[in-house]
Amino acid sequence: MNTNTVNVIDAPCGYGKTSWAIQYMNSMSEGSHQFVYVTPFLDEVQRVKESVTTRKFYEPETKKGETKLEDLHKLLGEGRDICTTHALFQMATSETIELLKANRYTLIMDEVLNVIEQIPLKKSDLALLLDANAVDIVTRENGLQYIQWNEQKIDYDTRYNSIKEVALTNNLMYCDNSALIWNFPCEVFSSFQDVFILTYLFKGQIQKSYYDLHGIKYRYLSVVKEEEHGYELIPYSLRKKHNKQDLIGKIEIYEGQLNDIGESISALSKSWFINPKKKDLIVKLKNNARNYLMNICKATGEDVIWTTIKGDKEKIKKQVAPRGYSKPFLAMTARATNDFRDRYILAYLVNRYLNPIQKKFFEQYDVKIDEKTWALSELIQWVWRSRIRDDKSIKIYIPSRRMRELFKSYLENDHFEEAPDNAIVDEPPSDWNL
């Protein structure tokens, strides 16, 4: 697949990624640039709309008789500058692609997107669809396998309508005889004039593996603040190294007997939590967390954030919730929110592993995922919701030995921040105006 090279601005929180993006959008003329800015949360949409003063950003809305996606397409057709959420951007269709190409937009994406999702499917469902000649498994020129719906059976109204709808978008992929995977249409990225992704530890992200899968190249950049010119993008090879010694002095990681529960490599993983034999250990984890928060840290609810796996109908979350501290829960997948930036007592009660189906999906095409960097990046994204993002001290309880050692290794050296071997690290950004 021929595509532009994506610009990945990979830098820690506080380096000025969002500030650069706002400066960039403010400084470019409306005649040369139209922007689509995509962010995880609605409150960030408002912040960008208020911060960019040289042009007007439009937010797609649900109107009478019109969906948000239809409004997005209307705004794209008019060449408007658009600020929207990941959730809406994920709905992109072939019509979205054509409208983007017609207006030569620049994409700025705050944090990575959920670019693949498993489609619910029982073990025999796919075999049933194949036997009924409703679908075919098609191998494309790039060697990737897709599920194609039989055009002669488009009008069939069955329990598999949801699968049919995804298959008809040509974005339903096949995973090793065990699952169907919705794949974000990669043509979206090549429909933009330039693409900038603002993130950290990109080499551990699913989106990086997705780019590898589809042959999309990526250029690594960093950001610096200059007195005269404000924020500037620089090749990653010239980046300013993160001051880990300063961080080490501000992060107090608990070391003590309360960590004994997380010694095994799988302790506090999803499989550990759902194992009926671990019921007593879950009670112990709950008590350990309360002991840490109440007795060791003397914390109030306003000081704390904690997380764990939610489970079906939040069953696991309720089982683990430390008594007296159930309210300051922050989902382990939280990103790009500033709502907890005053919190400084943290409890990370989970051991992150990739979804095995997602891992298998990439591995069947010999695309490797750096699972340790992925787990670490998930932890760091969560920790940096706290006041450490403002360079203030925090205390944290990480009972999983695996997660704790990953975090300590990150603080002690820079190897997690080394760019992937196939990344371009010595070039300026693709927009010549920069």
Summarize this, please?
32% of the residues lie in helices and 19% in strands. The protein has 434 residues and is an alpha/beta fold. It is globular, with a radius of gyration of 23 Å.
Q: Proportion of β residues?
A: 15-25%
Return the CATH architecture of the largest domain: 3-Layer(aba) Sandwich
Helix content: 25-40%
Helix run count? 16
Rg over C-alpha atoms, rounded to the nearest angstrom = 23 Å
Which sheet architecture does the biggest sheet show?
8 strands, mixed
CATH secondary-structure class of the largest domain:
Alpha Beta
Going by helix content, strand content and strand pairing, the class is: alpha/beta
Q: List low-pLDDT spans.
A: none
* Total domain count: 3
Count of β-strands = 17
From the 3D structure, determine the CATH topology of the largest domain: Rossmann fold
Order of strands side by side in the largest beta sheet?
3-4-2-5-11-1-12-13
Mean pLDDT: 93
Overall 3D shape: globular
Q: How are the SSEs ordered, and which strands pair?
A:
Blueprint: E1 6-10, H1 17-27, E2 35-39, H2 42-51, E3 57-58, H3 68-77, E4 81-85, H4 86-89, H5 94-103, E5 106-110, E6 116-119, H6 125-131, E7 135-139, E8 145-149, H7 161-167, E9 172-175, E10 179-183, H8 187-190, E11 194-199, H9 206-214, E12 218-226, E13 230-235, H10 244-248, E14 251-253, H11 270-274, H12 279-296, E15 304-307, H13 315-320, E16 345-348, H14 356-363, H15 371-383, E17 394-397, H16 401-412
Helix pairs in contact: 3-5, 15-16
